[in-house]
Design goal:
Mean pLDDT: 84
Number of helices: 7
CATH class of one domain: Alpha Beta
Low-confidence stretches: 1-22
Radius of gyration: 18 Å
Number of strands: 11
Distance between the termini: 37 Å
CATH architecture of one domain: 3-Layer(aba) Sandwich
């Protein structure tokens, strides 16, 4: 599996029709060609089902989709009767989102690190926020989580789905084969140090960046802003395996070493502790 970010970055873009310099606006058509209107295989079979299970959207709930891209999550939230607002830094991706899902959601151009500055958003007005394979392309993380906490009502929830930071570190991890043990293993070169990782562009593409952070950065960052973790799901890639693997060890590794990590946290209600903050 290629170690590339799964969607464009949602970084700064204050002017309403100008993409942020790191928003991957130049990659919008390439990305849309890979993901498509309904999401890639990774989205359809793993990422979106995990998000929906954690989010459990209800009719009438206001949900903020941060890093919405071309809106692949929107139809699934709309089927549950949610009221959806999508945020992204790429005008081109938002144009695609509006064309395909404009009747199901409102899409706003904005900086995920400055949510309170986005016209159309107000404090404590969302029941939930969701990051579908987007948060690893946003920096600084503290500003993203602070803005998320600002947008959520007391008792609201945030769901984050990302490539697993402990096992899938761009350019700092990979698969290996131990001939003596007949074992496929995951090699981790570095983990604890936060790292902006430049990614190798495909032919004709500009370079991109992903931001690796250890798991503690997400757990502690959420807690620092009154967002208390209540659920974690580690998602293996075994469902993506097609045909019969030439090595049983490969199938075992796909089953045991997760590809994605799902986190759910709740914003504490006034006068309640973390354990009392669920809806």
């Amino acid at each position: 599996m290629k170690e590339r970010p799964s969607r464009p970055s949602s970084r700064p873009g204050r002017r309403p029709r100008v993409a942020a310099g790191t928003s991957w606006d130049a990659l919008a058509h390439w990305y849309d060609g890979w993901v498509g209107e309904g999401g890639s295989e990774h989205h359809r079979r793993l990422a979106i089902p995990t998000v929906l299970t954690l989010l459990d959207p209800h009719p009438g709930e206001r949900i903020l989709d941060v890093g919405a891209g071309q809106g692949v999550l929107v139809p699934f939230l709309a089927r549950a009767g949610a009221v959806i607002v999508g945020i992204d830094a790429s005008p081109r991706l938002l144009e695609m989102a509006r064309r395909r899902h404009g009747r199901q959601a409102t899409f706003l151009l904005g900086d995920a690190t400055k949510l309170p500055a986005i016209e159309g958003l107000t404090a404590s007005s969302f029941d939930a926020a969701v990051f579908l394979l987007s948060i690893q392309d946003m920096d600084p993380l503290d500003d993203v989580l602070a803005g998320t906490a600002w947008a959520l009502r007391p008792g609201g929830q945030v769901v984050i789905l990302l490539t697993h930071p402990s096992f899938r570190i761009p350019r700092q991890s990979g698969w290996g084969w131990d001939e003596n043990r007949k074992l496929t293993y995951r090699r981790i070169d570095r983990y604890l140090t936060p790292l902006p990782v430049p990614l190798r562009p495909l032919a004709g593409e500009p370079p991109t960046r992903s931001f690796h952070r250890p798991l503690q950065s997400y757990v502690n960052g959420l807690s620092d802003h009154g967002l208390y973790l209540d659920r974690m799901v580690e998602v293996p890639a075994e469902q993506l395996t097609t045909g019969t693997s030439s090595k049983k060890a490969d199938a075992l590794a796909r089953r045991e070493i997760p590809l994605f990590l799902g986190l759910r946290a709740f914003k504490a209600k006034e006068g309640c502790g973390p354990a009392e903050s669920t809806r």
